[in-house]
Specification:
The complex is a heterotrimer. Chain A is about 80% helix and about 0% strand. Chain A contains eleven helices and no strands. In chain A, helix 5 crosses helix 6 and helix 9 runs antiparallel to helix 10. The longest helix of chain A has about 40 residues. Chain B is mainly α. Chain B has a single domain, classed as MetI-like (MetI-like fold, Orthogonal Bundle). In chain B, helix 8 runs antiparallel to helix 10. Chain B is globular and about 75 Å long. Chain C is globular. Chain C has a ten-stranded mixed β-sheet, sandwiched between helices. Chain C has nine helices and ten strands. In chain C, strand 9 and strand 10 form a beta hairpin. In chain C, helix 3 packs parallel to helix 5 and helix 4 packs across helix 5. The chains are: A mainly alpha, B mainly alpha, C alpha/beta.
């Protein structure tokens, strides 16, 4: 491979990052240029629609509450899932009793819970947050149980030998030991939370990001609809990115461990 | 959707407790189910919750039994399964083809990373309005969502599998001067197979969720549509009966795919690995 | 006056009698090695002594107090060194953990940790993670953790079994130096006969399962030992041959009384 100077190296990296996306946008532009396809506006049209559609006022009225509900539901589901997961994971008896029921509940596709929760809670904010909690909690719960169960028994013996018990043991051994698996559960829960947020709003709501997009679709406001889709996409990317950052911090030791390929002798 | 964990090693020398313990756990599991059903039966009857909101399990099961006698019920199940299976197959075909094709030209793959990392976290539900516009309430809407979601699950695993080939097998193939295609068939494919199957397993779960979602929200034919209709009807027990059905379907999908995975990988001695997605 | 007294220890798992009758007593400051054929329950014996397993019969006393649970002045070094360190804690935090649980004050804790890490030769690796270290170094961390705990008795369960020969030689010398520096009483379990004779003041030979004490011998080698001269000392060879012969005969199961 030819030796490239430092600037050249950086140039290649930038190229690698942006080339395909730019090509794809170019293809989009070419495909939509004739203005013939009703459902596919030009990139320009979509960009032009962004400003008027998403004013600070609409962002505050629609997007922020959606995101707030999402985060609230996700947080509650996370706390409940981890707490219950630790309790069940630590007790082989409890695990045996609850496993079939939990596996079944987890197999129910989360969106199906929306109509069910609507029977209880109507269509207000409580309903939307409840739906998110009910849908998200299962991956957190089940992954936490698995993570707690799989903590190395040798470490458990170390704790007994050095008289480490109670809260310290819970924090230092159980929670940190299960953290990789817990994070996997939280990641899955986040994806489900986004899905449920959007669906609960599309299904029955008077405001929110999902609702707004559906309104555009029903009113055949196509470029506006696309801006909504893009915004939703950006939201998904941003949340995944933030979660990834958090994961890298919390699981720094785990990534290093896997990279080194060392661990048990 | 869980990572595989190697079994915990035995610490103290103990006489074989395997079979009796499994037996005991199975009993406990069954007891857990019975307790849950009992709670479900009592809570509405005692009045903690309104029967209109949560009918007792006996009435739900009665409705379920009744529905199982109707053709419409099984048709709905069939429609959901069809959308799920077709979408999964399309997604798997596309993901495997693309993933292996890019294995032929690794340098090109580096250019796709940014696009993949951007498109992957986009929730498929964002495409719902588009699906409605283009496909209306037909099968196409379901497929659009299912394929989009399942594709990424499988594709990411295929990429990991293709990258993770056994270096010894690879060098052996090279020293025998295999062609690129030969290398793919004899080295890359067997190495990547566990990953591919893991991807299919994850994709299958996601595909079912999206299939039901499309039916629920858009109105494509299937169980989801039946639930939406039941919700605005007069029989809350029907909603629960259909929800139970989707749960059973979900369990069958999980169990079925895992069994298929185990069968196909019987020769693969080592621990199956999964890329945490 | 014995510090650690194991008397008449018996351990059965259902109908299987793993340990029939073992009595060992350690005086304050002794270094005693336990050797025996594989499967003779050396680890089980050590765990009973540590209070991690309840014996089926007999007793364990430490400083006059019966041992029913892990006592505060006893430390254990496990065989699986890689798995006995917390991978999410740095070396320093691993060594420090039992001290924090013991509520030792910050300044004192830091002093003990630094001292222990220096004693095992890892003073500069305090901020590394266990998986960044080699196997031998990981075991040193486990030893440092035990030493920093300031125990009266140190129990070591085949700590060098999974380590390569050269590292094992270094670690053996490390144990002797720690023993001299910190004056701690050590019960060292091993399957390596040479190691037992090299390290110990006394060697207790265990029989095959159901285990009893086959023989106890005193190692009358000089107190100053090193890998080169001690191992070529004719007395060393005599002792190890004797122990080897004992173990060979110990491999035959003990006849029922």
């Amino acid at each position: 491979m030819a030796r490239v100077g430092a600037a050249g190296g950086a140039g290649v990296r930038v190229l690698r990052w942006f080339l395909l996306p730019l090509v794809l946008i170019g293809v989009w532009w070419a495909a939509s240029a004739g203005g013939t396809n009703f459902y596919l506006p030009t990139p320009g049209a979509v960009l032009r629609a962004v400003g008027p559609t998403w004013t600070p006022a609409t962002l505050r009225a629609d997007v922020l509450p959606s995101v707030a509900r999402l985060l609230a539901g996700f947080t509650v589901a996370g706390l409940v899932g981890v707490a219950a997961g630790v309790a069940i994971g630590l007790s082989p008896a409890l695990r045996a009793y609850t496993e079939p029921v939990l596996e079944f509940l987890r197999a129910i596709p989360p969106p199906v819970l929306v109509p069910v929760v609507m029977l209880f809670a109507g269509i207000d904010n409580t309903m939307k947050v409840t739906v998110i909690v009910f849908g998200c909690v299962w991956p957190v719960l089940l992954n936490t149980i698995e993570g707690v169960r799989a903590v190395d028994p040798v470490l458990g013996e170390v704790c007994r030998a050095y008289r480490i018990s109670g809260w310290t043991r819970l924090r230092t051994l159980v929670l940190r030991g299960a953290s990789p698996q817990i994070m996997t559960g939280l990641r899955q829960a986040l994806a489900i939370a986004i899905i449920l947020m959007v669906i609960s709003e599309m299904f029955a709501a008077s405001s929110g990001l999902g609702f707004t997009i559906v309104q555009f679709q029903r009113g055949y406001a196509i470029p506006e609809m696309w801006t909504g889709i893009v915004l939703l996409g950006l939201l998904g990317v941003a949340l995944a990115g933030l979660f990834g950052l958090g994961e890298r911090v919390v699981l720094r030791w785990y990534f290093g461990l896997r990279r080194s390929g060392r661990g048990a002798p | 959707m869980r990572t595989e964990v190697p079994p915990a090693p035995v610490v103290a020398p103990v006489a074989a407790a395997g079979a009796p313990r499994r037996h005991r756990n199975a009993l406990r599991g069954a007891a857990g189910v019975l307790i849950a059903l009992a709670v479900w039966e009592l809570v509405p009857r005692v009045g903690l919750v309104r029967s209109a909101d949560l009918p007792p399990v006996s009435s739900v099961l009665r409705v379920l039994a009744r529905e199982a006698g109707t053709g419409a019920y099984w048709t709905a199940i069939g429609q959901t399964v069809y959308a799920w299976l077709l979408g999964l197959a399309l997604a798997a075909g596309a993901a495997i083809t693309l993933g292996f094709a890019l294995a032929l030209v690794p340098r090109v793959r580096a250019f796709t990373t940014s696009t993949v990392e951007f498109l992957r976290p986009i929730p498929s539900v964002a495409l719902i309005p588009l699906a409605v516009l283009v496909y209306g309430t037909g099968l196409g809407s379901s497929l659009l969502l299912v394929v989009y979601a399942a594709f990424w699950q499988i594709y990411v695993q295929v990429l990991a599998g293709v990258a993770d080939i056994d270096p010894v097998a690879d060098e052996t193939a090279r020293s025998y001067r295999f062609s690129r295609w030969g290398r793919i068939r004899h080295v890359v494919w067997p190495s990547a197979l566990p990953f591919v199957l893991t991807g299919v397993r994850l994709g299958a779960a996601v595909a079912l969720i999206l299939a039901v979602t499309a039916e629920l929200v858009i109105g494509a034919p299937g169980l989801g549509l039946a639930i939406a209709v039941a919700r605005s009807g007069t029989e809350p027990a029907l909603v629960y009966a259909l929800v139970l059905t989707t749960g059973v379907l979900g369990v069958l999908v999980n169990v079925g795919v895992r069994a298929g995975e185990r069968r196909l990988l019987r020769w693969h001695a080592s621990v199956r690995r999964e890329v945490p997605v | 006056m014995s510090l650690l007294e194991i008397s008449g220890l018996r351990k059965s798992y259902g109908p299987v009698e793993a340990i029939r009758d073992v009595s060992v007593s350690l005086r304050d400051g002794e270094l005693v090695c336990l050797v025996g054929p594989s499967g003779c329950g050396k680890t089980t014996l050590l765990k009973c002594a540590a209070g991690l397993l309840a014996p089926s019969g007999g007793s364990v006393t430490l400083g006059g107090e019966p041992v029913t649970a892990p006592p505060p002045n006893l430390a254990v070094v496990f065989q699986e060194y890689g798995r006995s360190l917390f991978p999410w804690l740095t070396v320093r935090r691993n060594v420090e953990l039992p001290l924090r649980e013991k509520k030792v004050a910050r300044a004192e804790r830091d002093r003990l940790v630094s001292e222990a890490l220096s004693a095992v030769g890892l003073a500069d690796r305090g901020d590394a993670y266990p998986w960044e270290l080699s196997g031998g170094m990981q075991q040193r961390v486990a030893i440092a953790r035990a030493v920093a705990y300031q125990p009266s008795v140190l129990l070591m369960d085949e700590p060098f079994a999974a380590v390569d020969a050269q590292t094992r030689a270094e670690l053996e010398d490390l144990i002797r130096s720690i023993w001299r520096t910190f004056g701690v009483t050590i019960l060292f379990v091993t399957h390596d006969i040479d190691e037992a004779v090299y390290l110990g003041e006394r060697v207790v030979v265990l029989s095959g399962s159901p285990t009893v004490v086959q023989e106890t011998l005193t190692v009358d080698l000089p107190a100053e030992r090193d890998q080169l001269t001690t191992r070529s000392d004719p007395r060393f060879t005599e002792l190890r041959t004797h122990v080897y012969a004992e173990i060979q005969s110990a491999k035959k199961p003990t006849p029922a009384p």
